[in-house]
Amino acid sequence: MNTQKQANPDHPIHDLIARRWSPYAFADRAVSDDDLRSLFEAARWAASSYNEQPWSYIVATKADPDTFERLLSCLVEGNQGWAAAAPVLALGCTSLRFTLNGQPNAAAVHDLGLASANLTLEATARGLLIHQMIGILPDKARELYRIPEGVQAVTGLAIGYAADPSTLLEKYRERDLAPRSRKPLNEFVFSGEWGATSSIMK
Length: 202
Hints:
alpha+beta, NADH Oxidase, two-stranded antiparallel ribbon, 6 strands, globular
């Protein structure tokens, strides 16, 4: 069972980052409420612009099948097929304006990403895995959950334990079995001008 896909970094990184990956195959195993509380506690302590903490999460577990199906319906069809196996689903939302003055918060989506990164690393530390997805139906989520104006559902999260990829359709199975890869540092760390690789990276 391919429950862990270790990264092969070019330079030393923390083990949690190296072990984090996003499976499509999820095991039929519940996530404890204690673990879930700790995941969202980690999100709570993420950095944010002006400490605005603009993120919110809508969560559903298979312990309540109706609630779970409701959230599942907010994912695009292609994601519903595999995410239905996860024991926990969530929608990551963010407020687009600052509470203090009502001005647009240009960091809102960035800060939701930071919170979800904290959440994901906490999950990794606990032996859990998270697959984040942009393939959601924001308008349907707004309707079903009465998400207020000025708040946007941005991402979906499937949370659980990895399972044998053989349970997946071929296109997803290949992704779960493929080694992890990333473009090299010299393609995205610049200095002097855009596209000029920083001397630190050489």
